[in-house]
From TrEMBL:
GO terms for cellular component: endoplasmic reticulum membrane. The keyword DNA damage does not apply. It is found in: Endoplasmic reticulum membrane. This is Cytochrome b5 heme-binding domain-containing protein.
Length: 434
């Protein structure tokens, strides 16, 4: 369920001599994060109470599955599963009783079985292995854009048109580099030998999002409910019935443009990154982050002066913020948002996630996050293989009557606004009439 732990020696005395048997009801009673917590993987019951604080993926993602079956997220998030199982022996307290089913009543057994067969097929096809040439060429195109941005100012001067074009190119560099970091977070930090400290905090947050997408209280990406936005048809009505009004939610589709994309990267995001590394005393990370600003200063200061330099930096961050927010929210905000219903892995991901139609531009613009469904079902799959597994996922959805949503890019953007407007209106009706 998280990056593979650093290998430790497990005393033989910790292994079970005689297995204890449990029922699903007994497991479900150990779901409180503040108390003793259990979870199930491949019918084996593990006590995660002491381990969760040492869990490389953070304690919260384990808490998400406390009292539940965690087999599928375990399979999805770990690369070297055999090694992880070896070091889980010290947590093993028993297994499900023989008469107990392998699945909880809330989960679709047939769908889960077939998805696990699909995952085994994907592994045999080698679709979880990265093509290093793809990422090398991707990095090269980022570097070329970076050089082109500087050359524009050097050759054409610092008037409005070349200045704006330079900002757009640098924004593109930052956005594409962000998607590349996203890839490294999934393809590297989930292995046993590599841990990218700079991305550690944000990968953990993304891991929690993947584990329970659009689940209120578990997905950090919807923490803006109810402080700023009323999200989802269920939660917005619930908020209205409780007579809560933190914001004028019936106008949230309008003020989203004011407090959403524009503010994220220029202010909050940049400040929070530095705050985090200072708090955790990540001095190497701090030096790496500062190196960007040092390089930016010495590259553009001679051309722009201090005021022009600060203006360029702010404009780039502003544009990057708009790009980042719209791309990351188009796949989830319009989808089902509710509390955790403990449904099966496939249903959990599909009800909270949609795709954007494939095209060369959409693939590039979104960093292949237009294949959000495949990205969620197979979080360690390299992005260049999403289009290969997509037809298999669509076939599975068709067989089990699950809606596989894919839409044009502009429609996906518009649906963010439409969904905010709809949930805001639902909140208002419940607030006034209940």
């Amino acid at each position: 369920m998280a990056p593979d732990p650093v290998p430790t020696t497990v005393p033989a005395s910790t292994e079970l001599l005689q297995p204890r048997y449990f029922t699903w009801e007994e497991v479900a009673q150990h779901s409180e994060p503040e108390k003793e917590s259990w979870l199930v993987i491949d019918r084996k019951v593990y006590n995660i109470s002491e381990f969760r604080r040492r869990h490389p993926g953070g304690h919260r993602v384990l808490n998400h599955y406390a009292g539940q079956d965690a087999t599928d997220p375990f399979m999805a998030f770990h690369i070297n599963k055999d090694l992880v199982r070896k070091h889980m022996k010290c947590l093993l307290i028993g297994e499900l009783a023989p008469e107990q089913p392998s699945f909880e009543p809330t989960k679709n057994k047939a769908l889960t079985d077939e998805f696990r067969e699909l995952r085994a097929t994907v592994e045999r096809m080698g679709l979880l292995k990265a093509n290093h040439l793809f990422f090398l060429l991707y990095l090269l195109h980022i570097l070329l854009l970076d050089v082109a941005a500087w050359l524009i100012l050097w050759i054409f001067g610092t008037s409005l048109v070349p200045f704006s074009l330079c900002a757009v190119l640098l924004c593109t560099v930052q956005a594409q580099a962000g998607w590349l970091q996203h890839d490294f977070g999934h393809l590297s930090v989930f292995s046993t030998s590599t841990w990218n400290h700079l991305l550690h905090h944000f990968v953990i947050g993304h891991l929690k999002h993947h584990a329970k997408p659009n689940c209120f209280g578990k997905d950090p990406d919807i923490k803006m409910h109810p402080l700023f936005f009323a999200l989802g048809k269920v939660l917005s009505v619930e908020l209205g019935k409780q007579k809560k009004k933190h914001m004028p939610y019936n106008h949230q589709h309008k003020y989203f443009f004011l407090i959403g994309p524009p503010a994220l990267l220029p202010f909050y995001f940049q400040w929070y990154i530095f705050y985090f590394v200072f708090q955790r005393k990540k001095w190497v990370d701090l030096a790496w982050m500062l190196s960007f600003y040092v390089r930016f200063f010495f590259t553009y200061m001679p051309l722009l002066g201090l005021k022009g330099l600060l203006g360029l930096l702010f404009l780039v961050r502003f544009l990057e913020s708009m790009w980042f927010v719209w791309v990351t929210q188009m796949n989830h905000i319009p989808m089902h948002i509710d509390r955790d219903q403990n449904v099966d892995w496939v249903s959990t991901q599909l009800q909270a996630t949609c795709n954007v139609d494939q095209s060369a531009f959409n693939d590039w613009f979104s960093g292949h996050l237009n294949f959000q469904i495949e990205h969620h079902l197979f979080p360690t799959m390299p992005r260049h293989n999403y289009h290969k597994v997509a037809p298999l996922v669509q076939s599975l959805c068709t067989k089990y009557g699950i809606k596989y949503k894919s839409k044009p890019l502009l429609s996906a953007f518009a649906d963010i606004v439409y969904s905010l407007k709809e949930s805001g209106q639902l909140w208002l009706e419940a607030y006034l009439h209940q």
